[in-house]
Design brief:
Blueprint (H helix, E strand, L loop, with lengths): L1 H28 L4 H9 L15 H19 L23 H10 L13
Length: about 120
Amino acid sequence: MTLLISIGGRKRSYFRTKNAIYWSSAVAECRHDGKALWTKLSVLHRPPTVASTSGHSVDDFAEFFVKKVADIRSATSNAPAAMIAFRQTPPFSHFYQVSEKEVYDQLSKMASKSCYSWTKYT
């Protein structure tokens, strides 16, 4: 948990720094032009604009997925039950302590999306 908080804290700090750099440079660019400066800063005083809608309501969205699930259940209702082969596995009873840095380094080396094939373990 400490690792996640630490990574989250670093990310938050990074974004704060990027934000400070952006606004510092934006103000510096407009230092001799009051109108341009006001245009940049007025964005901060306005509420965010509402995104345009796609014409689909929340109910349409829910209906779509309810129908999708019903269609899948209908299409697979006569399918045979899954064959799950149980296999002997060694017990997972020994733990050793690792540092936050070791965990961070290992996670940093992984691809942003990683997945092991189930066939690898069967």
